[in-house]
Amino acid sequence: MRPIDPKSIRRIMVRSTNWVGDAVMTTPAMADLRDAFPDAEIVVVANPLVAQLFTFHPCCDRVLIYEKKGAHKGVAGLWRFSRQLRRERFDLAVLMQNAIEAAIMAFAAGIPRRAGYRTDARGPLLTHGVKIGPEQKRLHHTEYYRHMLRHICQGEGGGRLLLACSEDEKRWAQTTLGDGSWVAINPGAAYGSAKRWLPERFASVGDSLAEEYGLQVVLTGGPGEREIGRDIETAMRVPALNLIGKTSVRQLMAVLAGCRLMITNDSGPMHVAAAFDVPIVAVFGPTDHTTTSPWSRNCRIVRKPTDCAPCLLRQCPTDHRCMRAIMPEDVLSAARRLLGDTA
What average pLDDT score do residues 91-105 get? Predict the structure, then answer.
């Protein structure tokens, strides 16, 4: 497959993934795309949550929100949105999302060049379909997206995760956090309960880091994790700033960018923190750390091998042994290596 001539491309539609963490892991590929087509307008199509990642981003010129409800609900809604895209006169569609829906959208929008992996039986709808085999499935997600792009362009964006906050957002975070050094504890995981370490153990780690290093604790997460946050607050000896369910994605970005350390499950905020080069201790159980770990050298993975992990299940059908085997001291040991052995 020949790379696409940059001179023939004026406007690019990128269909992003539907999960925050996955979308962050596409940002190195986005940088490759920007480098390959420096004069083209890059427009990201994303759901409302993911769209916030790209509303202030050097590799994105505009964002179009595709919310699969209301006017965009069902097949009729997809057709209606595709007609909206047709008016944009895109020259190229880059499909980070693997679903056939993304290919139908690009095809119905009349975009002449449509690039993506040949997943979900969508190969006939792609003009630049990239074969996916066992080797690609074993790639870290960040390299998975970049591998696809290498078949259509020759850009080199540096290979690092990339997010950006505005000056106003940085000031808001500074006002919210105040002075001091902060550790973010992120106890949730949107994919399912199997990825969540025990709240009381997060609380124990928070207390120890506050006592040993003088760190202040901020709890981060989404609206569905408020109860977990309350459990951690109740269990902790030291006070914590509980922002779970109280921030937008962009506010969460600014808060994490200002932290000295993050303790987290495998989650979207974990990848957000990695994009800001925040040191991370990531607790892994049922998910595969070789493909979804933080794309950063400034992290430590804490996991205990068990015969059933990684199972990739949303809920554990047995005793959650992969997570219960991880003790607070395991996480503290990893945190100390990142922070330095002395307080």
Answer: 98
Per-residue pLDDT of 203-217, as tens digits, reads 999 999 999 999 999
- CB contact at 8 A, 43 and 11: yes
In a domain? residue 137: yes
Q: For 276-318, how does the pLDDT look when each residue is reduced to its tens digit (9 = 90+)?
A: 999 999 999 887 899 999 999 999 999 988 877 787 777 777 7
pLDDT (tens digit, 9 = 90+) per residue, 6-25?
A: 899 999 999 999 999 999 99
**294, part of any domain:** yes
Are 208 and 181 in contact, with CB atoms under 8 Å apart?
Answer: no
Residues 137 and 204 reside in one and the same domain? no
CA distance 215 to 202: 14
CATH code of the domain covering residue 140? 3.40.50.2000
Listed in sequence order, the residues at least 6 apart from 225 whose beta carbon sits closer than 8 Å to its beta carbon are: 187, 188, 244, 245
pLDDT of res. 192: 67
User: What is the count of structural domains for the chain?
Assistant: 2
Same domain, 186 and 122: no
What is the rounded distance in angstroms from the CA atom of residue 176 to the CA atom of residue 31? 31
Residues 133 and 236 in one domain: no
Sheet holding 62-65, edge to edge: 62-65, 41-46, 11-15, 92-95, 113-117, 128-130
Three-state DSSP at 261 gives strand
Model pTM score: 0.94
pLDDT one-digit tens code per residue, 211-255: 999 999 999 999 989 999 999 999 999 999 999 999 999 999 999
State the first-to-last Cα distance of the chain, in angstroms, to the nearest integer: 55
Is 133 part of any domain? yes
Please indicate, yes or no, whether residues 189 and 329 belong to a single structural domain of this protein.
yes
* Tokens coding 158: 């540096």
- Domain holding 22, by residue range, is 6-150
Residue 160 lies in a domain: no
Looking at the DSSP bridge assignments, the partners of residue 190 are none
